[in-house]
Amino acid sequence: MAFTLAHMAAALPFYRNKKKNRSIRCFHFEALLIGTMMPDFPYYIGASSATGNLSHQWMGVFTYCLPWGLTIFALWNWGLKPAAFALVQPFLIKRAAKSFNLKDVDSKNSRNKVKRYFTGYANRYWSFAGIKKRVLHKVKSFYLPVVLSLVFGAFTHLIWDGITHADGSIARHIDWLQYPLYFFPFKGTSIARLLQYLSSIVGLGALFWFALLRAKDWQINTKDVAEETETDTIVTLMFSKKQSVIIIVSMTTLCLVWGIQAVLNWYPSLTSSPYRFAAGVSVSLLKRVTLLCVSYTALYHLTYFLQNTYRQYKK
């Protein structure tokens, strides 16, 4: 398979810039990103090879990728995303608050708007009404685009793999993709396999380029908005800058340690099969990183719930 994260590059042409392009409305971009990776999901949860084969079949898109994709999307949209934003909130909140003209509307609603932008919560999120409001989105404007995006994203994955696998559904019908190469270091490697390596590199490069553009857009958008006073942009922070730095550094350190362990564990296979080495390291590392992110998310939501309960009790 091409490197799993690189598959997200297939979703980039469908990104809808709200200022420049309003034509692509049938997709939810975050769900599209998730869908592009779903066929590889069995590899990261230790599922059987039969399950991995199912997820890479056309019918498997509906029987495996879609239900699991909806689960992952729900966890991301209402769990991981607020927790991730909470870490960068102390660094961005002053800049982001400029994007909301708080003088034109009620200050309480404005502060809630900024809160939701970063944490996904309003003040009454933990009430039944808050939960109901977040879950009961309009089918046409939310859930239908999410389903279409997950399915379409999974299809792009299968097409990508179908071309870059020697036994792929597309490559096996194209003779020249089966031809072996005769030059170092790819001697004996088929053209389809070489495309796996090249497409993974290009895909990761495209994602990095996209991230830089989005960061640049963020800076431009915030410069175009008039500055607000600090009293107009009161937002409750989950973490201070120092706490965010400690959490980020700790998580990064753990990831580096796990990465080194994965490299050492799979090093014997490097000389015989570099591709197996790279796949083994990435799968092993991403498993642990996923578990780390889920653990942090659970602690974040528990902390938020306790803090919110304490504030309500004091009132």
Average pLDDT score = 76
Radius of gyration from CA coordinates: 22 Å
For the biggest sheet, the summary is: none
Helix content: 55-70%
Flag low-confidence runs.
100-106, 118-128, 222-235
Individual helix count: 10
Kindly, what is the distance between the CA atoms of the first and last residues, rounded to a whole number of angstroms? 55 Å
What is the ordering of alpha helices and beta strands?
A: HHHHHHHHHH
- Beta-strand residue percentage: under 5%
What's the structural domain tally?
A: 2
Instruction: Classify the secondary structure makeup into a structural class.
Output: mainly alpha
Outline? globular
Instruction: Please tally the β strands and state the result.
Output: 0
Give keywords:
315 residues; mainly alpha; 2 domains; 10 helices; 65% helix; 0% strand; globular
Outline the structure in words:
The chain is mainly alpha-helical. Helices cover 65% and strands 0% of the residues. The protein has helices spanning 29-37, 41-44, 49-55, 60-97, 107-119, 128-135, 139-164, 191-223, 241-266, 274-314. The radius of gyration is 22 Å and the shape is globular. It starts with 28 loop residues before the first helix and ends with a helix. Residues 100-106, 118-128 and 222-235 have low confidence and may be disordered.
